[in-house]
Model the fold of this input.
Amino acid sequence: MSVHALLAAQPALYDWRRALVEVGPLLAEEEKHCDLTGEFVGVNFAMLRDRGFYELAVPVELGGAGLTVTELSAMLRELAHYGSSTALAFAMHTHSVAIAAWRWRHQNAPTDGLLKRVASERIQLLSSGGSDWLVGSGSATKVPGGYRVQGKKIFASGAPSADLFSTGAVEDTQEGPSVLQFMLPMNAEGVSIVENWDTLGMRGTGSHEVALNDVFVPDAAIGARRKSGAWHPLFHLISLIAIPLVYSVYAGIAEAAREIAVGATKRRDTATLEAAGALETELNATRIALDSMIALAETAQPSAETTNRIFLHRALVCRSAIKTVDLALDLVGGAGYFRKLGLERLFRDVQAARFHPLQKAPQRLIAGRMAFGLPIDA
Done:
């Protein structure tokens, strides 16, 4: 029986851990190649697609495996042990599906059609993410039957193999700028990929710019309309589900760095043991902060208070994951400077944890406002 047939018949039986053990070495080799060349990890995405990973977050009732956020987090952490870029780009698809599943289950939102397509057709979802946070970007001009959209969307991780693009554009109205949220096919007329992803780390994510040149978006495709710059319930939900899953990848990178460093260190003198103890302590801090985020994602409701807590813990995971990889390099010493050990790549990749929403200044501003009982919006 094929993986897809197994999922369709008895989704709960699908063992993603076993699948990763089987395909992991191949993923790791392709990850190394793509880091050297700057190519997108498309081969790895194809392997994950063929093994049923695209539909892991789809509810069982709609044809998927029905993994919880806790289980999805564990999957992304483990995937990061084989490839940082693969895991991060795949987290972007995973959180988009998980959000649609949450809306279907908790809000009776009509996302079942999309989720069924993910399960049956194994389509890949793409989002414009951090480049389209609260303010939004691009422009939308009203025309008969819909809108004409212009824009450049950066950091679209996984763009080269994506099928549907979730993004937005800003319409000028009498009440002020309004952001329209919509989804459109990547092969729609006027949609193109600008291959400009050439970076320090996460080089295989294919996080190229997606250009929208006079793209027609029909009225029926507008899923939400929100005030530019203000927190909207949709973004509280994105914070609740997406951020813990994205930062699961960075916890996985920290774990992978620890495994490499401890495995490569032969000394057992006092200084080495203290360095190893510092590494273990920082990694534990990373895990505790991530576990707190995942617990919120499983039990909390989207709100300003929940969003503040999510981003407090996101800041801790970011800081501790980066520090963990630093300490892994300290433990192995000069050997860590060589590419062949693998720590050099993890050191570069983990730096990307700094740049997802919310970055240091806006996160601290929100935390400060909430501390004084002020509204989350300035």
Confidence is low (pLDDT under 50) at residues 1-13. The longest strand covers residues 146-156. The radius of gyration is 21 Å.
